[in-house]
Amino acid sequence: MKCIRDWVVAIGHFKLMHMKRRLFTFLTLIFTVFAHGAETRPNVVLIMIDDFGYECVTANGGESYKTPVMDQLAATGVRFEQVHVQPLCTPTRTALMTGRINKNNYTHFGHLDPSQKTFGNLLKDAGYATCITGKWQLDNGLEGPAHFGFEEYCLWQVVRRPGRYKNPGLEINGKEFDYSKDEYGPDIVSDYALDFIQRQKEKPFFLYYPMILTHSPYDATPDSADYLEKKENKKLGSHFTDMVAYTDKLIGKLITKLEELKLRDNTLVLILGDNGTGKGTPSRFQGRDVVGGKSTSTMWGTRVPGIGNWPGHSASGKVCSDMIDPTDFLPTICEATSVNVPDELKIDGRSFLPQLRGEKGTPRDAHYLWYNPSGGPTAKFEFAHDANYKLYADGKFFNVAKDGLEKTALDDATLDDSAKSAKAKLQALLKQQDGPRNDIFVKQGQAFGGETSEDTKGNKVTKKKGTKPDAKAAKDPRFTRFSERDANHDGKVTFDEFLSSASSKDSAKERFEMFDANKDGSMTLDEVLKQGMK
Fold first, then answer.
1. Selection from 85, 149, 158 nearest residue 117 by Cα
2. pTM for the structure as a whole
């Protein structure tokens, strides 16, 4: 009996050991699968260049600038000919990050509604390391980037608007940093991006890189001969060529870093502009002179470069003429990374990953745009268009392939069959988007006073000579606040300029009138220093 008991114990022990081995083998297999999955999940780098129109890239036919890195990425990847965005930065950033058109969730300039989810949130929740470097301009305080899914950030214009180029003021992971030894803002954020990639090389990462360049002022870069000179070159476009070259150089540094770390083949790189080139900036394009159209409704305000490159996964040397919208980037990134997009987000974009692979995909046949930088219930302009025709909500119809500046509207009586068919298609798209905006976003509208160095129409403004503050006043924080509000640098702050950055809209008029001592409709620095301004 003892022998039998021993056999039973031995068999039981054997079975237990066998079960343990099987369990160990199973767990090892599971671990291997997950580890392998983590290693092979693609990284994503999304680069958006500030105020950078389609005409700026040589591969597109640009003749004024040198962009060898972007040209090479286009030649070995996919170059998109019809990427159309909003004609101003914040509206495009909102659409890009949330995958929703402006009509459905835009509030006002410089702000992103905190109820919205971004591609940062989605990829972070899926286990990606997330980082944003460059330009923010979306409000929500020092915690804003983290709220929208970015674990790390190195940004300009999070809670203030100091200089962005030489000796910049930046916010890095919740802290303000001011530089004074001729450091260059774009270099600082670039170095941070490269360091992030280095630190996260063992796990999948998402780097969103909305670059500081090439927005005005058109200042010297570290590669410009006069970078260390104190005087400002005010000639329009004087350093824009240098800025484009430096932008391309920084993109090249990032690509080199990916190659050095042997991450290039597992990293999808996407590049676009946030709107047309700064208004009035002259360039040569495909044998003719053109000017930047930022803030305008023409193709020169909305058409931007588009490049996708993913070695071994994307097509090589392909040119795609499908209509691409900023809302399309979120679903494209999520499809590439196998990240689910919840239905409740109600995104408007559609993935162009198939086109990146050289496949047909399901492209949109036209693009819809609702634009008002102030937000509110109605659009400043609203239209639908394809590569050849554009139809405004007010009925004006243009052949934009032949009339890019939209000088002559087409008469219905003269339309050929092709134009009639296009107009019917565009009418149907406008009708599809018909209806009121959500009150949640409408009520957050605020008057747009223009960006610093530009008026409300996007025109460059030259600093006018005003009363120069003494050294004591220049150190006063009220002087800094006044300078931020003085959008056109004429030494006066109008009510619209004051309202655009007022912390309380309800009391703005009363407070403005308090500062405006002589009741001339504007306030000067002297008036502010006498009264005080927060």
1. 149
2. 0.81
Q: Are 533 and 515 in contact (CB under 8 A)?
A: yes
Pair 55, 277: CB distance under 8 Å? yes
Q: How far apart are CA 434 and CA 225, in angstroms?
A: 53
pLDDT category of residue 529 using cuts at 50, 70 and 90: confident
| Rounded-to-10 torsion of CA 239, 243, 244, 249 | 140
Task: For tokens 């006043």, name the residue.
Answer: 473
3-state secondary structure of 246: helix
Per-residue pLDDT of 52-102, as tens digits, reads 999 999 999 999 999 999 999 999 999 999 999 999 999 999 999 999 999
Q: Identify whether the C-beta of residue 277 lies closer than 8 Å to the C-beta of residue 53.
A: yes
Whole-angstrom distance, CA of residue 398 vs CA of residue 402: 9
CA distances from 487 to 89, 197, 490 (A): 16, 37, 8
Verify cis geometry, omega within 30 degrees of 0, for the bond prior to 214.
Answer: yes
Please give the order of strands across the beta sheet that includes 389-392.
367-371, 381-385, 389-392, 397-399
d(CA 181, CA 462): 26
Dihedral sign, Cα of residue 199, residue 204, residue 206, residue 211: positive
Of the candidates 71, 98, 77, the one whose C-alpha atom is nearest the C-alpha of residue 86 is: 98
Contact 467, 393 (CB under 8 A): no
Contact 122, 341 (CB under 8 A): yes
Calpha distance 390→314 (Å, rounded): 31
Report which of residues 462 and 59 the model is more confident about.
Answer: 59
For residues 63 and 55, give the distance between their C-alpha atoms in angstroms, rounded to a whole number.
8
